[in-house]
């Protein structure tokens, strides 16, 4: 019975890992990069100076003055207070038709930043939608959910089929035969960070449970999922019972921020929403920053905009909502500071490498046995899924640095670079011999990573300058790109070595 179960789980692990691994590699790679989405946004914005001490009161006043001048008739303003991690004043206004517009200012000078600072958000969007707009189609969103479920199932089946799971904590033989080395790498990267693999897969599903398990939600809300989402989010728009049409200046915002922070007894405000600004029915919402605790649901205090009277304090939620917020916080990693983000980044890369090693291992084993046409095709797809994704990510970062800041639709152009680079990588993956395509593609990815600091320098923030000025974010990003390039170059040389039994073709 035990052998039968292990054999069944082995079959499931192999094919589930192969079919979903092609998608999971890109999801995990972009998710790892998205851990530093804010830092990537700053790194690719040379117009913004290095982080300095932020005067919050001055920044809020600057934002209000700007919105009063640019969008006096907006339905809602949003002021995102600059922080040490995100030292930019982000201003958003929504018109009566519901269209939102975003401007970003340098909080020191008040000068508008021409770039949309979207590089990090691109990786985040790809991580959970494969870059497909959810409003136009939910297919990417659903594929990612299926891949997350597959990763969770593959992790469980992998534990079942492991005969020596604790021994594999300590075994890695990189100079053994190529198949043995890939097996050791897959086992080591699977076993050592196993709790992280399972936690991230599960919490990723919990994040958007209503999309993956909609039946209960639809039943509770008469089949109207949007009604559930509105009720769960507790709509941000508050209508105070005063005449809507009469102009009346909204009170100063920073005193409300101070009152909100006193009500929380700790934590700092980061978002200010002003609905119906400078009207008698104005309402001000102060939202708490989420970096001082795991639960990813910010506390909030609401005030009447006309006179500053307290409307409500939102700090308590149902146990179910608190649990979901805690699990979401484990996934989003807004807490814990730079050390926690590096831990998530490195373990995320370990998850990515685990999937990549498993895909290569599948191809290696079948190639040595003289695989079928399907196995040959699977090897080609694996090259495109693994090396192609790395090439695309590096090419995208080059594009973000080098595309002129003032061009129209810059965001779409940068995204197009990613997908175009990936498509171009398919050509050598399909045309070149398998044993040649792997090292060639990995060397291409390595060269793109190694030359990222060149693009950064051309954009105006050379590594020598950022090191000299102590700009840890920009210099750290360049040095990380160099390190990744070196690792990929070494991997290319290693994978090019012919196995003892002959070369895989």
UniProtKB/TrEMBL annotation:
PANTHER family linked: IRON-REGULATED INNER MEMBRANE PROTEIN-RELATED, PEPSY DOMAIN-CONTAINING PROTEIN
Pfam families assigned: PepSY_TM (PF03929)
Chain ranges passing through the membrane: 12-37, 139-161, 188-212, 342-362, 374-397, 412-430, 442-459, 479-496
Superkingdom to which the source organism belongs: Bacteria
Organism: Sphingobium yanoikuyae
Keywords, sorted A to Z: Membrane, Transmembrane, Transmembrane helix
Protein name: PepSY domain-containing protein
InterPro entries: PepSY-ass_TM
């Amino acid at each position: 019975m035990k052998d039968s179960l292990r054999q069944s789980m082995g079959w499931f692990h192999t094919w589930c890992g192969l079919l979903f691994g092609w998608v999971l590699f890109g999801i995990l790679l972009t998710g790892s990069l998205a851990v530093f989405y804010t830092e990537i946004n700053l790194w690719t914005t040379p117009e913004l100076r290095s982080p300095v001490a932020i005067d919050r009161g001055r920044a809020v006043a600057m934002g209000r003055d700007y919105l009063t001048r640019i969008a006096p008739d907006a339905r809602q303003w949003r002021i995102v207070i600059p922080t040490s991690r995100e030292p930019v004043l982000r201003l958003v206004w929504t018109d009566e038709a519901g269209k939102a517009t975003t401007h970003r200012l340098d909080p020191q000078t008040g000068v508008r930043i021409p770039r949309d600072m979207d590089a990090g958000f691109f990786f985040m969007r790809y991580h959970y939608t494969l870059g497909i707009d959810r409003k136009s189609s939910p297919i990417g969103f659903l594929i990612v959910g299926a891949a997350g479920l597959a990763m969770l199932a593959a992790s469980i089946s992998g534990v079942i089929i492991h005969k020596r799971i604790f021994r594999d904590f300590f075994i890695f033989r990189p100079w053994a035969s190529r198949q043995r080395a890939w097996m050791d790498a897959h086992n080591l990267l699977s076993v050592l960070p196993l709790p992280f693999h399972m936690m991230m897969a599960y919490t990723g599903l919990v994040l958007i449970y209503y999309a993956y398990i909609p039946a209960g939600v639809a039943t509770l809300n008469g089949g109207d999922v949007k009604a559930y989402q509105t009720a769960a989010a507790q709509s941000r728009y508050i209508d105070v019972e005063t005449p809507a049409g009469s102009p009346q200046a909204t009170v100063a915002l920073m005193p409300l921020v101070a009152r909100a922070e006193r009500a929380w007894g700790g934590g700092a405000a980061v978002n200010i929403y002003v609905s119906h600004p400078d009207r008698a029915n104005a309402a001000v919402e102060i939202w708490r920053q989420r970096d001082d605790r795991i639960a990813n649901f910010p506390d909030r205090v609401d005030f009447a905009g006309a006179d500053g009277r307290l409307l409500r304090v939102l700090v308590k939620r149902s146990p179910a909502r608190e649990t979901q917020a805690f699990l979401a916080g484990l996934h989003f990693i807004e807490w814990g500071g730079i050390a926690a983000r590096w831990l998530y980044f490195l373990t995320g890369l370990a998850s990515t490498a685990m999937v990549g090693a498993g895909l290569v291992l599948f191809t290696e084993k079948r190639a040595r046995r003289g695989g079928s046409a399907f196995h040959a095709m699977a090897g080609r797809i694996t090259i495109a899924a693994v090396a192609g994704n790395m090439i695309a990510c590096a090419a995208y970062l080059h594009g973000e640095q080098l595309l002129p800041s003032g061009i129209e639709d810059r965001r779409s152009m940068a995204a197009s670079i990613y997908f175009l680079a990936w498509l171009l990588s398919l050509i050598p993956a399909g045309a070149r011999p398998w044993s040649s395509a792997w090292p060639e593609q990995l060397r291409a990815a390595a060269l793109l990573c190694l030359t990222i600091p060149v693009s950064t320098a051309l954009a105006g923030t050379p590594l020598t300058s950022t090191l000299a000025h102590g700009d840890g974010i920009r210099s750290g990003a360049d040095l990380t790109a160099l390190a990744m390039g070196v690792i990929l170059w070494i991997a290319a040389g290693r994978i090019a070595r012919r196995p003892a039994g002959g070369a895989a073709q």
